[in-house]
Amino acid sequence: MVVAAVVLALKFVAYLLTGSVALYSDALESIINVAAALAALIALRVAARPADANHPYGHSKAEYFSAVAEGVLIVLAAVSIAREALPALQHPRVVEAPLPGLLVNLGATGLNALWAGVLLRAGRAARSVALLADGKHVLTDVVTSIGVLAGVLLASLTGLHWLDPALALLVAANILWSGWALMRESVGGLMDAGVDTATENRIRQAMSEHAEGALEMHDLRTRHAGRMTFVEFHLVVPGEMSVQEAHAICDRLEDAIQTELPGASVTIHVEPQEQAKHHGVLVV
After folding, report:
1. Residue partners of 238: CB distance under 8 A and separation at least 6
2. Residue 38 and residue 117 in contact, taking contact as beta carbons nearer than 8 Å
3. Contacts within 8 Å (CB) and 24+ apart, 240-247
4. How far is the C-alpha of 110 from the C-alpha of 44, rounded, in Å?
5. Where in the chain do CATH 3.30.70.1350 domains reside?
6. pLDDT by residue for the chain (284 residues), tens digit each?
7. Are the C-beta atoms of residues 93 and 84 closer than 8 Å to each other?
8. Regarding the domain delimited by 197-282, which CATH topology (the fold level of the hierarchy) does it fall under?
9. How far is CA 82 from the centre of its chain?
10. Terminal C-alpha separation, the chain
C-alpha cells in the first residue's frame, strides 16, 4: 500500500507538470493500485484464519474475492479514463514541459517494476491468489506506463497532440482486458475449477508410483480454494486386505501427493476389488 501510494503521488506530479491526458490516465490507474492493495491485505488476513465450526475447509477462498474486486476496480478505472480521453481527442491540448514530467513518471514506473517482481515472487512462493493478482496488475501498470511515456514523448516531438488522448484510450483498453482476465480467473476459483492438466498429470504419476498393493485408482477429482488444493479419489484394493494394510497405502499416497503439492488436502475412499472400474490410474 505504501509503494502504491508513493507511485500514485509521483504520477500525479507528472500529470500536473505536463497536463497530459495519457499521464493523467496512468495516474488514475494508480489509485486502483492503492485500493487493490488494501483489498488484498484484508483478503490475506481473512484467508489466514484457521478452519472453524462454520468454515471447516478454512477461509482461503477469501483471496478470490480480493482478485474479483480488483478486476471490478480496473474496469471502473478504464471507464473513467475513457470519459476523460474522448473529449480531449476532439479538442487536443498542448503537452507542456514534457521532460520533467516524463522523468518523474519514469521514476514511478521503475519503482512499480521492482514491486511487481516482489509481489509475483511472494505470490508464487505462498501460492497466494491475492498476491499474484496484485502482482500481475502492477506489472500491467508498468507495461502501460512505458507505452504512455513513449507516446507522450512522441506527441511532444512531432506536435501531433492528438496522440496524447489516443494513448489514454489505449491505456483504458489495455487495463480493461487486464481486469477481465483477473475476474475470469478468480471466478473459476470460486466455481471450484480443477487443477491444470500439468498438475493433474503430476498427481496421477505420484498416485501410480506409490500405490503398491492396491489394484487401481479412479474418479480423481481436484479443486482449488485459494492456496489450498483438494484431491479426492477412490482406491481399489483386494477384498481380503486388512484395514491396516489399506490404511498404510493411503498414508503413502497422501505423502506422495503432498510432496508434489505442499499443503494439499487428500481424501481417499477405499473400495474392494468388486468395485473396480478398470479405468483411471493403474498401479505401476
Report:
1. 215, 272, 273
2. no
3. 241/213, 245/213, 246/270
4. 26
5. 197-282
6. 888 899 999 988 888 888 777 777 778 778 878 887 888 888 888 888 888 888 887 787 787 777 777 777 777 777 777 776 677 677 776 666 577 888 888 899 999 999 999 999 998 888 787 788 788 878 877 877 877 777 777 777 777 777 767 777 777 787 777 777 777 767 766 777 788 889 899 999 999 899 899 988 988 999 877 677 899 999 999 989 999 999 999 999 999 999 988 878 899 999 998 877 766 666 65
7. no
8. Alpha-Beta Plaits (3.30.70)
9. 25
10. 51
The fourth-level CATH superfamily of domain 2-190 is: Cation efflux protein transmembrane domain (1.20.1510.10)
Report whether 30 contacts 10 (CB < 8 A).
Answer: no
Among 273, 108, 250, 75, CA closest to 176: 75
Cell output for 188: 473459476
Paired strand residues for 233: 268
Dist CA 69 CA 40 (whole Å):
9
Cell numbers at 265, concatenated = 488436502
Residues of the chain with CATH 1.20.1510.10: 2-190
